[in-house]
Amino acid sequence: xxxxxxxxxxxxxxxxxxxxxxxxxxxxxxxxxxxxxxxxxxxxxxxxxxxxxxxxxxxxxxxxxxxxxxxxxxxxxxxxxxxxxxxxxxxxxxxxxxxxxxxxxxxxxxxxxxxxxxxxxxxxxxxxxxxxxxxxxxxxxxxxxxxxxxxxxxxxxxxxxxxxxxxxxxxxxxxxxxxxxxxxxxxxxxxxxxxxxxxxxxxxxxxxxxxxxxxxxxxxxxxxxxxxxxxxxxxxxxxxxxxxxxxxxxxxxxxxxxxxxxxxxxxxxxxxxxxxxxxxxxxxxxxxxxxxxxxxxxxxxxxxxxxxxxxxxxxxxxxxxxxxxxxxxxxxxxxxxxxxxxxxxxxxxxxxxxxxxxxxxxxxxxxxxxxxxxxxxxxxxxxxxxxxxxxxxxxx
Length: 396
Ligand SMILES: CC1=C(CCC(=O)O)c2cc3nc(cc4[nH]c(cc5[nH]c(cc1n2)c(C)c5CCC(=O)O)c(CCC(=O)O)c4C)C(CCC(=O)O)=C3C
Ligand SMILES: [Fe+2]
Hints:
396 residues, disordered N terminus, binds coproporphyrin III, 11 helices, four-stranded parallel β-sheet, alpha/beta, 9 strands
């Protein structure tokens, strides 16, 4: 088991940040309700353009890119499956909470499409629920996946006139909790098993852990300022740590061979070509693999919770097509979705936060975790967009 790109360097532990306030809450907290915060997606052809405008407002995404992305949605009738996934996730969370004797209501609101976070916050407050513990459907640290949700919360509270009434806290980034990692590990194990059955040797197989590319400027600022995780920041470091952990675990269990190589690749780049984004691109790497003696590739959607458009189009369509063109056998492994281990881990995270479980007792499978409860100053900041107020962290 070797990583073929940059090594997962020695990284400081998330608990070592030396800024004001503890990274993990140490006093139990009372909450009235859970807030499931999603990305949102269109649910009909007429939603597609307004949705894309919402996502890209103020981002300098070229029109050609928007038109191209619109065709991905149009191909599926203008419907992204992501809202349906969140309905299912919400139902699964309610069920898991109920089984554990927890009767919290779960409100669901999105950043970019109906039902919006603003409406969820209004509805919660109307029902007398003003202390909300949020779970955002994004596992890693970066502006898009962490801080932007905190800004969404601050805006939702302010725009609804509920500042000082509603409070939203957010559970820690969960890239390395067992129930998030397990479904990916199972997918890699199944792919390796299938490739071995086809008579392929370990060195003929490549595992590509795929995640959303982001601007390198955002990546450098992902996670708390003082951690100094280097190029790619906390975002890349967290993905690499999870990939390494999956391969180590499978090697120990005899499901992967020491010679099975893996790497982290990126997908779904947007932005102007002049702006650097994280590389290499998944399709570019696939095209290079035959020259490295590779005959089969497993594409693992490590950055995503469910089979939404990024997975259906950019991986199942584009990456698998690139593999076919390169003459490679290829498979795309599952996302966590509503896998019971994942749902159960989310409820564990809600419970651990409510009970202020000490960090040393919190489940985590990489050296980087357990990640912070309370985002540090400057965490995942976005210098292009400038400062915007954010809830659920230490100011600024
Ligand atoms: C890190 C990350 C995640 C993973 C974490 C998470 O899950 O949050 C993610 C998820 C998603 N991204 C999604 C869709 C889009 N993302 C876009 C644009 C962008 N994504 C970015 C980053 C991320 N995105 C960035 C830096 C941009 C550039 C504009 C900006 O700075 O914000 C655009 C605009 C067009 C384009 O350029 O592609 C679209 C339509 C959907 C919904 C899919 C569906 O509908 O099924 C999901 C789950
Ligand atoms: Fe995105």
